[in-house]
Amino acid sequence: MKNIVPEQKRVYLPIVDSDEVFPVGRVYCVGRNYAEHSKEMGDDPERDPPFFFAKDSSSVVPANFSAVTAISYPMASSQFEYEVELVVAIGKGGRHLTQEQAADSILGYAVGLDMTRRDLQAQAKKKGRPWEVGKSFDQSAPISPILIKSKKLTAKVREAEIGLKVNGEVKQLSRVSNLTWSIEEVICKLSDVFELRAGDVIMTGTPENVGAVIVGDDMVAWVEHLGEICVRVTD
Predict the structure, then answer these.
(1) Residue 58 confidence (pLDDT) above 90
(2) Position 229 in a domain
């Protein structure tokens, strides 16, 4: 059997200190998973729990720790915004996972950006339409190399600082311990509505103080113990 059109390129994320790579499958995102960001976006974190949406795997841009990663300012938008996130790479799949199974499903962790066409997202929200136009577009998910899970690293990540600077100025700063739903709870809830697969990626939510960037801006995003990535917005 022969393809009638060229096969789309698959995205792979490097594994730190390894010659192995992680083939990215589906990319799930969690909305409203830090209380202050939930309030910032006009929701009540007590009444409105986090929810899920997705990005296409082609949105992922591997971002090295040691170099600047360039992403293009997206078409059809005049409000391009950053959201720094802790990323979880899934190594084992399943459905209706327990907390213990959820913890066991984690292969490793990374630093990511959920870049958003906020104006298009706002238009979609106002009309009750899906968010894909605001969230799932080319180069909207820069993600660092993956650090393989260990008990020590997992314990550190739970309390880690998470933040983002634009042109050297701190814009977002919080801690992973401020997640409304923990990493394992997110995985459990997600596995109740989707059967998770090895290769899936979960972006676990962003802290408050999201904001816009323009062409020429440099963003530095970090999660303590996982490193930092530098992403530059280009034409």
Answers:
(1) yes
(2) yes
